[in-house]
């Protein structure tokens, strides 16, 4: 459990403290996720709602690994990135999905810690493995839907010069553009809100444990 706590601290720093990812945090995050996935296979780690959420965070780093491997392939074989604009947009969306999934799951863990500290008995029916799995599944579905909209916008922009796109899919291009702008604004304000909420939860937990 100490290793899992260290992993959570690393992820909180990576996604909710740092303003943008860097090489060091990305490498440490991938290394920590690999170790955590191996650790969770051990029989010594009990199956709880928290471990389910942690496992989902670690699995989300597969998206980062795909981007890193793709960048290495592009660099090694000197692929012309300008000719693969859609691929570049796809990789960027994978990073966005990883960030959003991780932030939401980390916030769920913070909320669960808050419930355990202040409402241990009342929240027992809520803090189940089944609910944790359903929560993680819903988060993945919502973020994937978000990325599909972003990809649709990028695809339509890349093919805006096509007569087929301009004549028959104007409404789709307009819809995807408006939806993508709305989602970007929503994710920006949601990111700020999640940071504030997480600080509040751990502030209350810290002073509650100090008083005890």
UniProtKB/TrEMBL annotation:
GO terms for molecular function: G protein-coupled peptide receptor activity. It holds the Pfam family 7tm_1. Signal peptide: none annotated. Its main location: membrane. The chain crosses the membrane at residues 12-40, 52-77, 97-117, 138-156, 185-203. It is a multi-pass membrane protein. Keywords: Cell membrane, G-protein coupled receptor, Membrane, Receptor, Transducer, Transmembrane, Transmembrane helix. One of its GO terms (cellular component) is plasma membrane. It is found in: Cell membrane. Residues 32-212 form the G-protein coupled receptors family 1 profile domain. The keyword NADP does not apply. It comes from the Eukaryota. SUPFAM superfamilies: Family A G protein-coupled receptor-like (SSF81321). GO terms for biological process: neuropeptide signaling pathway. PROSITE patterns: G_PROTEIN_RECEP_F1_2. This is CXCR3 protein. The gene is Cxcr3.
């Amino acid at each position: 459990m100490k290793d899992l706590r260290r992993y959570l601290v690393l992820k909180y720093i990576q996604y909710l403290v740092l303003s943008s990812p860097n090489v060091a945090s990305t490498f440490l995050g991938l290394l920590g996720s690999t170790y955590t996935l191996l650790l969770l296979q051990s029989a010594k780690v009990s199956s709880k709602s928290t471990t389910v959420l942690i496992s989902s965070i670690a699995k989300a780093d597969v998206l980062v690994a795909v981007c890193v491997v793709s960048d290495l392939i592009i660099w090694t074989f000197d692929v012309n990135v300008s000719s693969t604009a859609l691929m570049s947009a796809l990789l960027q969306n994978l990073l966005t999905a990883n960030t959003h999934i991780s932030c939401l799951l980390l916030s769920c863990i913070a909320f669960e810690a808050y419930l355990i500290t202040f409402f241990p008995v009342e929240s027992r029916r809520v803090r189940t493995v089944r609910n944790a799995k359903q929560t993680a599944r819903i988060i993945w579905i919502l973020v994937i839907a978000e990325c599909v909209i972003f990809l649709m916008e990028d695809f339509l922009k890349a093919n805006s010069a096509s007569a087929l796109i301009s004549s028959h899919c104007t409404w789709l291009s307009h819809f995807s553009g408006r939806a993508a702008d709305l989602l970007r604004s929503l994710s920006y304000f949601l990111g700020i809100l999640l940071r504030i909420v997480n600080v509040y939860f751990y502030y209350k937990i810290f002073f509650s444990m100090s008083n005890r």
